[in-house]
Amino acid sequence: MLDPETIIDITVIIPTLNEEDFIGRLLDSIIKQSVMPKELVVVDAYSKDKTIAEIKKRQSKLKNLRYFRIPKSTVGRQRNFGAKKTTSPHLLFLDADMELKEQDILEKYFKEILKAKPDVAVAKNLPDSSSWKNLLYFKAEDLLFKCSRYFWPVIVARNLYIRRKIFNKVGGFDVEIAVGEDQQLVQKIIRAGGKLVFLKSVRFHTSTRRVDKEGRRKYALKMILYGLKILLFGRKKSSVEYEFGNFKKLNK
What pTM was computed for the model? Predict the structure, then answer.
């Protein structure tokens, strides 16, 4: 049994698809935290690799860890499924290639949530790479996200906090959107009167696998052009090449 004094009333939801190279790293970093989330759920889209095996390896140390498998559709559907299977009033969505490097991240995160009382919040994302180019890229991206809040919020769900009450009010993630469903949900929450907060006390680290594989400039340009398409034609009439579930750790 978990010590009640170390449990915080927050649900962590992680969608996966062929994440054997990363899900273990994330779960190991949660094991080392000074506090544990009340609920920890992985929603897998029938991975064909050893993702589930990596999850099972850690269930003995994460007593509150559960996993579900649903047919592959959109990542929004996986996140919604995880929310429906849990009860905490606070939802924290994490991508499978994230890492909590400091052992008090969840503790600080929850304390700031309780103090700031946001409806939706995001912490700073830093690269897990030592490359100064990747660090510069992520710092520029973080600045863009913060500036975008004043005209067209661009928030991604690498780490994304949402208060369950407003999550349910706006209907969760749009399961018909394959890419950018996180940005669309944040914008819906803000239009519904929700409060957006950029957390200051913590930072998460994320894999640079996508920008390493596609190239920083190419990837940034692709996302900018996709954003313009959305503004001109709407999300459901816009498309972008975006690979899911086929990334491996790259040799640096």
Answer: 0.84
Cβ contact 120:155 at 8 Å = yes
Residue 99: give the domain boundaries: 4-208
Question: Residue 229 domain-assigned?
Answer: no
Domain assignment of residue 224, yes or no: no
Helix 216-233 and helix 132-148: axis angle, to 10°? Answer: 20
- Tell me how far apart the terminal alpha carbons of the chain are, to the nearest angstrom: 40
**CATH assignment of the domain containing 139:** 3.90.550.10
Q: Which helix (H) or strand (E) holds 41?
A: strand 36-44
pLDDT digits (tens, 9 = 90+) for 125-155: 898 887 888 888 888 888 877 887 777 777 8
In a domain, 250, yes or no: no
Cβ atoms of 217 and 184 closer than 8 Å: no
